[in-house]
Specification:
The complex is a heterodimer of chains A (245) and B (414). Chain A is an all-alpha fold. Helix content of chain A is 35%, strand content 0%. Chain B has 2 domains: 196 residues, no CATH class; 121 residues, no CATH class. Chain B has 15 helices and 2 strands. Classes of the chains: A mainly alpha (245), B mainly alpha (414).
Chain lengths: 245, 414
């Protein structure tokens, strides 16, 4: 090249300055221990461990409240930590007479976990708070440390609110759950170990929907052999809401 | 929290079907619509400029610098909607200090910086350096100092130096094209790579974004050129305007074909999401997708451009057609961004329901903020044009002298 581009020297200088400024700023601003252990500030571990501890953990309660602890252990609330209801109680463990934990006695608290919400799995105990003994505190019937039901629920909807709600407005509204499901009585008291059956073949539906079935005239009929081909009926029809596409 | 519950309850009645609790309220709102719209304009305007520079489409000479300045002014504003949305602008620096290589967003910070510092600013500097020096000689006082600073104190305007500037500028432009592609392709990439969202997840996304960016960029420069020439009382360079309209037309065709391809692909694949998506298109997105994006924003302008460009009209009529088409294109592309960003959040990932989005007027993410972010780039551009006039109208007379090209009166309506 005949011409030497000296005129861009200031530009080069400017960029060099910018890069140096950036590097210096980076060296200054990035925390010293950043990256030592991973993509974070290693010092943060020490900082966090110096924070005051507010939760004592469930085992700590055992020393003095073994009665409650034991009661809860065998119950449906086994999986819940004490402090999920009583709040952080580390101070109480250190000085039981100085600090007493609160106990959530209002209805609202239990509803946080037990209010009906469609995203909760079917079978998780849920209630509609407006309908479930409104006005009374939960503790008058349920013992929080061992929430046994006062009596066995009669309705499947007590535990399968989601299914019941849908079925209620469907064309299958009039059908009892047990028309299709074989449910041992023990399922109502111990659902996790005593399983309810789900239909496994189309004969369940055929009882009412087969061409020659002995059922009400109004029920629509299909040719069970042909209709739906090799698929199960509920691959296409949601049995609790059969009209959905 | 209470406010949020109030918001939720005010929209609840409009929710249809089943929607997960965390889907009632949209997380990405109007400002996130504005952001890809702005970066699109940047990339589009820059690619237009490079057409002139690299591919030597010399009729576009009059808008070369204008497109660069447009790109710059929109580039400077584009990140602001994001910062406003995140609400902690002071933390944005962290992304540069400790970027994580597995984060597309973090890496993009560097693409953005690269594009701004190395591509746009450098190209503009090399292109304007000679003018800065000349303007500095002509001016005095503070103005002189400003041009001196802008020229970084250089004074060499020998032929060798200018030739070097020219070469360097060209080199940077060549570098700039893939950078511009990356700039907007990335925005599409961010959306396209969200696996869990069937409305977004598509490998075509970056490409579709890119072409819609080109469409919007060309239309914007066309608009700015037309309006600014009117106000400067100059005659429009019809050859240039024609070419712009032509490119705009082609870009619309390519963009529309790509969107159509994407659409047909989804329809044919017909995954489990197809039902809820078609329900969304025919209800929630009907106005913004079918009417605004496709009919008003694509088909009408395409026809108008085709007529204007190839229909053999007088230039007065052409200009009208182009002008209207360019405005409609902006409406269309904005709707495109809306449909992507808002659309992707309107349907439930349960595929069973749709929520609603209501634009708020005030507030950090409201309508007023949005309008502000859309207006500020133009204000910025106005000042840039004042300081460094981009006009290159050698060979064009003032409008009053001209009687030859069907123009009889200055176009006062606009």
């Amino acid at each position: 090249m005949s011409h030497r581009p000296w005129h861009i020297a200031p530009l080069v200088a400017l960029f060099t300055i910018l890069i140096v400024v950036f590097l210096v700023a980076r060296a200054k601003l990035v925390p010293e221990t950043f990256g030592d252990l991973g993509f974070y500030r290693a010092q943060a571990l020490d900082d966090v461990s110096e924070l005051e501890i507010s939760y004592a953990g469930m085992d700590a309660c055992f020393d003095c409240h073994d009665d409650v602890f034991e009661e809860k252990s065998g119950s449906y609330h086994d999986g819940l930590s004490c402090e999920v209801c009583h709040g952080p109680s580390a101070k109480h463990v250190d000085e039981p007479d100085e600090f007493t934990p609160t106990a959530p006695r209002e209805r609202g608290y239990c509803i946080l976990c037990h209010g009906y919400n469609p995203s909760r799995p079917s079978g998780f105990p849920q209630i509609l708070p407006e309908q479930h003994n409104p006005g009374k505190v939960c503790m008058s019937c349920h013992e929080p440390h061992n929430p046994l039901l006062p009596h066995t629920p009669e309705e499947c909807s007590a535990c399968h609110r989601d299914v019941a709600n849908v079925k209620q407005v469907s064309h299958h509204a009039t059908l009892e759950c047990v028309t299709c499901h074989d449910v041992p009585d023990a399922h109502r008291t111990d659902p996790r170990n005593e399983h309810a059956e789900k239909p496994i073949d189309p004969s369940t539906c055929a009882k009412c929907h087969a061409d020659g079935a002995d059922s009400s005239e109004k029920i629509p009929r299909v040719d069970i052999e042909e209709h739906g081909g090799r698929y199960l009926c509920w691959d296409c029809h949601y049995p609790h809401y059969p009209e959905s596409k | 929290m209470e406010q949020m519950l109030l918001n939720i309850s005010s929209t609840l009645p409009d929710v249809s079907g089943y929607v997960f609790p965390n889907e009632y309220v949209l997380q990405w709102e109007l400002l996130i619509v504005v952001y890809p719209y702005l970066t699109g304009l940047v990339a589009g305007a820059f690619i237009l400029a490079s057409l002139e520079r690299v591919f030597k489409v010399s009729v576009l000479r009059p808008i070369y610098r204008l497109s660069l300045l447009t790109a710059l002014s929109f580039m400077l504003i584009a990140p602001l909607p994001l910062l406003a949305h995140l609400g902690h602008p002071e933390r944005s620096i962290e992304m540069f200090l400790t970027p994580h290589s597995s984060s597309a967003m973090a890496m993009f910070g560097f693409i953005y910086a690269w594009y701004l510092m190395v591509v746009l600013l450098l190209e503009i500097w090399f292109d304007y350096r000679k003018d800065f020096i000349i303007w500095a000689q002509e001016a005095s006082g503070l103005k002189r100092l400003m041009y001196r600073v802008l020229a970084l104190g250089t004074k060499d305007i020998s032929k060798g130096a200018i030739d070097f500037d020219e070469k360097a500028g060209k080199f940077i432009t060549i570098l700039g094209i893939p950078s511009a592609f990356l700039l907007h392709g990335y925005v599409g990439f961010i959306f396209g790579s969200i696996k869990a969202n069937p409305w977004w997840s598509s490998v075509l996304m970056p490409i579709v974004f890119l072409f819609s960016a080109i469409v919007s960029g060309i239309a914007l420069v066309l608009l700015i050129y037309m309006i600014s020439t009117m106000f400067r009382w100059k005659k429009m360079n019809m050859a240039c305007v024609n070419k712009l309209a032509e490119f705009l037309f082609y870009a619309i065709i390519v963009d529309f074909s790509l969107e159509l391809l994407d659409f047909i692909h989804r329809l044919y694949e017909s995954e489990e999401s197809i039902d809820i998506l078609s329900e969304m298109i025919s209800s929630r997105l009907f106005m913004s997708l079918i009417v605004s994006q496709i009919i008003i924003g694509t088909l009408v302008p395409a026809v108008a451009l085709a007529f204007g460009r190839f229909g053999g009209f007088y230039s007065e009529m052409r200009r009208m057609l182009f002008f209207v088409a360019a405005i409609l294109v902006q409406v269309g592309i904005f709707s495109t961004r809306w449909n992507v960003v808002i659309g992707g959040q309107l349907f439930s990932k349960s595929m069973r329901g749709l929520t609603v989005y209501k634009v708020e007027v005030f507030g950090m993410e409201g309508l007023l903020m949005t309008i502000l972010f859309l207006v500020v780039p133009f204000v910025l551009l106005y000042f840039m044009i004042k300081i460094m006039p981009p006009w290159m109208d050698e060979g064009l007379e003032d409008i009053k002298l001209d009687k030859s090209n069907g123009v009889t009166s200055p176009p006062t309506t606009a």
